[in-house]
Amino acid sequence: MPVFKKKKKSKKRTYYKKSQKKKVKVPDGVRPYIFHGMNLDWENDDDPKDECPWCGKEKFSVNVASGLSRCLVCGISSDGSSGLNPMLFIRELHSLLRESTTSDMYDELAESRGLLSGESLKAFGLVYHAGTWLVPAYTSEKKLSQLYRYGDTCYPTPTLSAQMFGANTVNTKHKVLNVTEGVWDAVAFYEMLKVEGLKESVVGLPGILGFKDEWLKLFSKFDTIVVLQDNDHPNEVDGMERGLGGIKGVSRIASTVKSLEDPPEVKFLKWGEEGYNKDLENKCDVRDVLNLKVSL
Amino acid sequence: MPVIKRKRTASNIECPKSRLDAFREMRKLISIVPDELVVKGKKADVSKVISCDSYTSVIEAWKDCMRWRKDMEDALTTMLAVAISTEQVGDQLFLMVIGDAGSGKTRFCDAFLTSSTCHALEHVTGFHSGYKGGDGEDYSLIARIDRKLLITPEGDTLMSSPSFTQVMSQQRRIFDGTSGATYKNSKEDTTYTGLRTPWIMVGTPTLMDSDQSRLGDRFLRIFLGTPSRNERREIQKRVVMSALASVKQVSSKKDKNLTENAMSKAYGLTGGYVEYLRDNSQELINGVEVDEESIAELASNWGEFASDFRARPSLAEKKEAIDTKEMPTRLTHQLVRMAVCISAAKGEKSLSEDTLALVTKIMKDTSAGKTLQIAEVIFHAGEAQARAIANKINTPEAEVRALIRFMRSKQINILRQVKGKRGGNTRNYALTRRSKELMGHFYEAE
After folding, report:
1. Which residues contact B408 (CB under 8 A, 6 or more apart)?
2. Among candidates B11, B14, B43 on the partner chain, residue whose Cβ is nearest the Cβ of A259
3. Contact of B126 with B170, CB cutoff 8 Å
4. Which residues contact A188 (CB under 8 A, 6 or more apart)?
5. Residue B334 and residue A230: Cα distance in Å, rounded?
6. How many CB pairs under 8 A join A and B?
7. A253 with A177: CB under 8 angstroms?
8. What is the pLDDT of residues A186-195, one digit of tens each?
9. C-alpha torsion B297→B303→B304→B309, nearest 10
10. Contact B89/A69 with Cβ under 8 angstroms?
11. Looking at the DSSP assignment, which residues form a beta bridge with residue A45?
12. What is the ipTM of this complex?
C-alpha cells in the first residue's frame, strides 16, 4: 500500500493565503514586510514580530499603523531609534543579501536568462532570497528605492513606487543613454556595451508606458537617449485598436524628453517602416535578437 | 626607444561572434524619432528643479537674487524643517509665515512648489468629495495630497473664503492624521487614516485676526519682521537692479513665469534641496544628537509659554463657557519636533544655540498678540496700570481692561492685581510668580 506523506504547509505563505481567502485588506504598514517573506500576525497584534533577517531572533517588530520596523535585539535601524521605514528596510535587506549571493548563483541565473555572464547581474544588484531573485530599482540619484521579486514577471514591493533597473550602473559622463523594457534586456545590452567597449549607459524601465517625469533628472544629463522598445504589433480587440505598446512608449518618452528646455536627441529601434516589423515575432525584444531567436 | 601602446581590453566577457554580429545589426536599426511621434505641448516640471544637497548653496543662491535678512533665512529654514518632517511619525507641523506684502514670502512658496513633493493649496472649498468617477476612483483632494507638503501662498484669500471655517475644522482632524466624511447619498462613510500632510500657509498680518485658539489652533507661526528704513532703501536699490535686468530679457514661451536667471536658480536649488530632504529625512533626522535632559526643561518652558499667551477670551458677549487655555503638550511636541527638524534641515549634528534661538523665536511669534504685549510691558516695568499699558501698546483702554480681566482669571493665571505705589484706589497689575519666572527664561529685564 502506498504511503502518502502529508505535505507540510509553508509557514511563510500562511498570512497571504488567509488574507486572500477572507479577502481582508492587509494594512499598508505591513504589506512590504509580508511581501518579502515575513510572517506577521497583524490581525491580532499592533506590533507583530517575526524572525529578524539580521540576527535571527524572533524580535523583529513592525508597527502596523506607521509601517516602521526594528529589531529589539540587534537594534537594526538607520542610525537612530525610530526604526526603518519600508524603503530603508529594503535597502538594509539588499545589503545583507548581497553578501550571501554567490558567483555560482549569478552564473546559473545568467545561463537561464540567456545572458553571457553573472558579473553583469551582480553589477545590476540582483540578490537571491528565500528561493527567489530580487531585482533592485533605483531613482535618478542612484538610490535604491524599489525591490522587485522575480517570478513570471517582476512584482514590485507594495507601497513603494516604480523605479529604473540598472540606474546604479549609469555613468553621467557618457553621451548616450540606452533605455530598454525591463531588466533582462538592460543586462543583455549592458554586457554587449562592455564587450564592444562602447562608452554608453543603459537603464531598464518597468514597463515602457510607465515613464515618470522624475526620471528626466537623469535623462537630461545625456546628449542622446536611445529607446530600445519591443517589436509590438498592432491588434484588434472587440473592434478596438490595441497593441503597439512599444511605439506608444517611444512616443511618450520622446514627448516628455522633448519638453525639456535643452532636450537631448531621442532615437528608437526602428524594427520596420511603421516602427514595428510584422515579419518578426510579435513582442520580440533585444534579448531575442542577441540570443538569435529572431534574425534581422 | 619605441613607445608600445597597450590596447585596453573592453571586458573579460566571452562573447560568441554571432551574438556580436546580431548586436551590430540591431544598432544599425537605431533611428531618430520622427516628429509625428512627438506630442507637442507636453510639459515636464522636473527641469525647474536643480539637484542640491547643501543648505549653504540654497542660502547663497537666495542671497544672490534678493537683499537678504536674518528674518528671511529664519523663515526659509523653518519651511525646510516642515518639509523634512513630512513622513516622520508624530504630530504634524503646520506653519504660518506672516510678513508684510512684498517681503518675499510668496517667492519662497513658489520655490518650494517647483518640487513634486509639494502641493499648492489655494481656493479650496473642502478636503472631501463624495464624488466617485465612473471607475470608482476617489476624487477627494485628501486622497491626492497624502505625503505631500501643502503650500498656501495667499493665506489671506483662504481666510476670506466663505468656506474658511469648514476648511479649518477639517484641517484640525487632518492634523491628527485621520479624516472622515459622511454623505447622505452614499452607503459607506469614507475614512482616511495615516495621513501625513504638513501645511505651510503664508500671508500678511491679517491672518492673525483669525482666532482659532479656542478651537485648538494647530499652526505655529513665524514673522518676517519689517525692515528698518535703511534696509528698505537697500532693498529698493536691489529691486531697481532686478527690474532693469529683467526688462531687457524676452520671457520664454514655454515657461510662463517672469523670473530672471538668478531667481530661477534659487527656485531650482530650493526645490532640489526639498527633494533631497524628503529622500534622506530619516538619516538626517536620526543624525541629530539630542541631549534629552537639557532639552526637556527648555521644551517644557516653550510649551507652557506658548499655551499661556496663545489663550484668548471668548468673543461672545454673554458667554457660558469659562475662560480656558489649551494644554501645553501639543505645543511642546510640535516645538521639539521643529527644533530637531531645523537642525536636520541645516545639516547639523546636534541642536545648536542658533537652532534653539530660532525655535524660541517661533514660540514667541506663535504666542504673539495683545496678551503677550501686555505681559511684556508689565515684565519690563514690574507693575503697571491699565491706562499706561493701553498707551504703551496703542490699544483702547477698554480692550486692555477686558484682556487683563481674562489674564487674571484663575484658569489663565498670568496677572495679579497689586496695590498701586501711590496708594488709594489705584490698581496696578503685575505678573504672577509663575509667569514672571517663565518670562524670565526668554526675556531680559530692562
Report:
1. B414, B415, B416, B417, B429
2. B43
3. yes
4. A114, A115, A116, A286, A287, A290
5. 52
6. 144
7. no
8. 999 999 999 9
9. 140
10. no
11. none
12. 0.86
